[in-house]
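Hi all, posting the design record for the shared folder.

TITLE: backbone redesign
STEP: 1 of 1
STRUCTURE INPUT:
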């Protein structure tokens, strides 16, 4: 295993999400993601040709004149994110201890597929199916 400490299984999703994006090869494959900020506003990341890539748009919550957030984490418990993390993990692989434990419903399994994917990627120190 790489020199990474996994968050506790019940740690906030943000801790798991920070670990996910910190691993080499992380590539965000979702066309959008909705994330709340500290004010309860929900932002969606969309592809936008006007700003040469990805930008954030507020989609719900209080209208606040605060700046658009920058996110250094994803929500690994979101069903869409789970699928993307699974794809980044499984390219060219078939055996993954944390994902296998989750799928088999073992008592030592992490509570979500996304967290299991992050844990397995951390054991390799990178996302096997991500950017080189």
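Okay, here is what came back for every position:
SEQUENCE:
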């Amino acid at each position: 295993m790489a020199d990474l400490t996994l968050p506790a299984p019940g740690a906030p999703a943000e801790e798991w999400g920070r670990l996910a994006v910190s691993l080499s090869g992380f590539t965000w494959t979702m066309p959008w993601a909705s994330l709340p900020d500290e004010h309860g506003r929900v932002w969606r990341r969309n592809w936008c040709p006007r700003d040469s890539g990805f930008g954030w748009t507020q989609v719900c919550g209080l209208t606040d004149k605060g700046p658009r957030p920058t996110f250094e984490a994803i929500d690994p418990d979101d069903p869409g994110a789970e699928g993307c993390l699974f794809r980044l993990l499984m390219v060219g692989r078939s055996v993954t201890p944390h994902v296998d434990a989750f799928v088999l419903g073992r008592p030592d399994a992490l509570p979500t597929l996304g967290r299991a994917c992050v844990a397995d990627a951390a054991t390799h120190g990178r996302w096997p199916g991500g950017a080189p």
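COMMENT: Residues 14-124 form one domain.
Let me know if anyone wants the other runs.
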